[in-house]
Design a protein that fits this description.
The protein has a seven-stranded parallel β-sheet with strand order 1-2-3-4-5-6-7. The longest helix is centred in the last third of the chain and has 21 residues, at 477-497. α10 runs antiparallel to α19 (477-497). It is an alpha/beta fold. The protein has 19 helices and 19 strands. Helix content is 39%, strand content 18%. NADP nicotinamide-adenine-dinucleotide phosphate (NAP) is lined by residues 325, 328, 348-353, 371-373, 376, 405-408, 410, 415-416, 418, 432-434, 455, 458-459, 462.
Length: 498
């Protein structure tokens, strides 16, 4: 865990607070205005904590760090840090280029040397850079790049696999898209990886908090047999699927890890599915429709809906697609009322609405579709043998269920509601939106005496079905619901603070 602080006392205090559970610490001396003043405190810390393994880093600004001194001053600080008991010192290649043999000998006299490079723009020329690095005497070679695509992780991990049997390598890709290398890099041969002390105290873009690496991604247990899953979309950072599905895998002892995959193109994503390999995907906006073209097989319902939110990769690399949004709608309703003949009004005609309409028709419900733009409602109704209606028609109608399958009410969405208050004439109101948990339409529905089914329940149900498809086990619903509700409550608190 890299530690940054504004002064030496605070830096050592932070180390004191974490060392019991996290004995592998990097002191980022370059974050201090006077790094040399920290050395005595570090010595005391080392004496008190013989269990700690410590890296000292004083990276120069020219190499992406904060230290403004000369290379000679950097080396001087690192040599002193080694003399005070730090086990490893990190020196960047740009500094190494200016050193003499004798400097390397000084640096390595009482510590091991990590020779590092950082590419803040891309994952480029790893082999050429490594060839240069090998010219210097070092104990570890650390190569850090920037992932602009998901495939950059594959490049990094193949690089690690090629060299880790001969050299002690450390490799990681920065930025949000580098998550694959942060979680799987160790199994590709990286000696260790980096985890932030707390969210907000990252020392590199895309660094994951150490606690999340351990508790959510179970990095200590990732091995060659670990199956890799993920949610793919653009954007994807706010998805709750990683929290929910990693919790499910942990609870059911499935050796699998689930990542948020920010895919800027489907080609990039599919290359990773093949090369890593990724065993299954949750697919989200904007790829639910486009994904269908890339599947080897889908079930007839998914094909009719024209949107796929779940992919399974078989042993031979074939891709099978499903739509579990259908289960997300049908299961919560089935638990509450018989669907045969149930009068249902679906608001919207997009991907989620189509899953609802086809799923309900399959259960012989009586389905009506109302959309802001009439055309898509008519097309959907015709295809699914449902009925397209307009706002005037629904004035005189009452339903068993009204389903909101539009983004109206979602956080940040200021659009008008798809129906007006007096049109809430039904026994149940099913809200697909789950951020916030209680939308304006949910509040109106409650005030008018309708029973409410929240978007979080659909979200858990569609995720549960994905878990079942991938693992062949019943999903731990209660655990999945618990972590989703907790995450939503935390997010609500955070947005209240803003
Ligand atoms: P989509 O494909 O973009 O479709 C959106 C639909 O909503 C379109 O038919 C659009 O009508 C309509 N619409 C948008 N704003 C509207 C407004 N203010 N009033 C009336 N209609 C409006 O989106 P989607 O994938 O179907 O998703 C819809 C919602 O369901 C999203 O909020 C999504 O987060 C949620 N969802 C939740 C879950 C869950 O697990 N809880 C799962 C899937 C989806 P036009 O044709 O006129 O543009």
């Amino acid at each position: 865990m890299p530690i940054v602080a504004s002064n030496a006392a605070e830096m050592v205090q932070k180390a004191d607070a974490i060392v019991r559970d996290n004995p592998f610490i990097e002191f980022r001396l370059d974050y201090l205005s006077k790094p040399a003043l920290a050395l005595q405190k570090i010595k005391t810390f080392v004496e008190y904590h013989p269990e700690a393994l410590i890296i000292a880093t004083c990276r120069r600004a020219a190499a992406g760090g904060k230290f403004r001194g000369a290379v000679a001053a950097e080396v001087d600080i690192l040599v002193k840090a080694a003399n005070q008991g730090c086990h490893l010192v990190d020196l960047e290649l740009e500094s190494a280029d200016q050193l003499k043999q004798a400097d390397f000998a000084r640096l390595r006299r009482s510590a091991n040397l990590i020779l590092s490079t950082h590419d803040f723009r891309g994952t480029r020329k790893l082999e050429e850079t490594f060839a240069r690095m090998k010219e210097y005497p070092a104990d570890f070679f650390k190569v850090v790049s920037t992932a602009n695509t998901l495939s950059d992780n594959v490049v990094m991990m193949k690089f690690l696999e090629r060299h880790s049997h001969e050299h002690s390598m450390i490799g990681v890709c920065m930025e949000e898209q580098g998550i694959i290398s942060r979680v799987l890099g160790v199994r590709a041969g990286s000696q260790f990886t980096f985890g932030a002390i707390n969210p907000g105290e990252e020392t590199a873009p895309g660094q994951i908090a150490a606690r999340a690496l351990r508790d959510v991604y179970r990095i200590d247990q990732v091995d060659t047999a670990t199956r890799v899953y993920g949610v793919a979309g653009d954007p994807v950072a706010h998805s709750l699927s990683p929290i929910m599905l990693n919790a499910a895998f942990r609870r059911e002892n499935v050796n699998a890890v689930y990542l948020a995959l920010h895919a800027k193109s489907l080609d990039d994503l599919l290359a990773c599915v093949r090369d890593i390999p990724i065993h299954g995907l949750s697919v989200t906006m904007p790829y639910k429709e486009e994904m269908l073209k890339h599947l080897d097989k889908t079930d007839p319902l998914t094909a009719k809906i024209g949107a796929c939110n779940t992919v399974v990769r078989s042993q031979d690399g074939k891709l099978y697609g499903f739509n579990t949004d259908v289960a997300g709608v049908v299961r919560p309703l089935e638990m509450r009322l018989p669907l045969q003949g149930a009068r249902t009004l679906v608001l919207g005609a997009g991907g989620a609405a189509r899953a609802a309409v086809f799923g309900l028709k399959e259960r012989n419900a009586d389905v009506y579709v109302l959309n802001r733009t009439p055309g898509p409602a008519q097309t959907l109704a015709k295809k699914a043998r449902a009925k397209a209606v307009n706002k005037l028609q629904i004035r005189k109608m009452a339903f068993d269920v009204i389903i909101n399958a539009t983004p109206s009410g979602m956080e940040g969405n200021r659009d008008p509601m798809p129906i007006s208050e007096e049109d809430f004439k039904a026994k149940y109101f099913f809200e697909m939106v789950y951020t916030p948990a209680e939308t304006k339409m949910v509040k109106i529905a409650r005030s008018r005496g309708l029973q409410v089914i929240l978007g979080a329940e659909m979200f858990v149900q569609q995720g549960a079905r994905q878990f079942e498809i991938w693992s062949g086990k019943p999903a731990p619903m209660a655990e999945m619901q618990r972590v989703v509700e907790y995450a939503l409550a935390q997010a609500a608190k955070a947005s209240e603070k803003k």
